[in-house]
Amino acid sequence: MMNRPIARRALLKTLVVGAAGAALVERTGAASPPARLDEKDPAAVALGYVVHASDVDTKKYPAYVKGQICENCLQLQGTAGDTYRPCSVLPGKLVSVSGWCSAWAAEM
Ligand code: SF4
What we know:
Elements: H1 3-31, H2 42-47, E1 84-86, E2 94-96
Antiparallel strand pairs: 1-2
């Protein structure tokens, strides 16, 4: 009889700690950002994406104009100030704000 309140309290403690742990794992998982787009990714290769606009192959992409970077591209999404952000043309991965690809379009 004397052990029942203690056992109930221990069970409650276990449930509370378990629930808090599960909530923490869930929150941590949801907060992990997408991976950065690799220049060798087939989607990146198809559009000539480079992490640094200074590395654009100007013979292959003569339409490139110095000063065009992801950061001033219409397709860039996400939060200003982040160095890697989502791009509507290359979904699921983050692009460098200093990068460039052949789908670059001027912001309006
Ligand atoms: Fe960068 Fe624009 Fe190309 Fe996306 S579409 S990778 S933001 S240049």
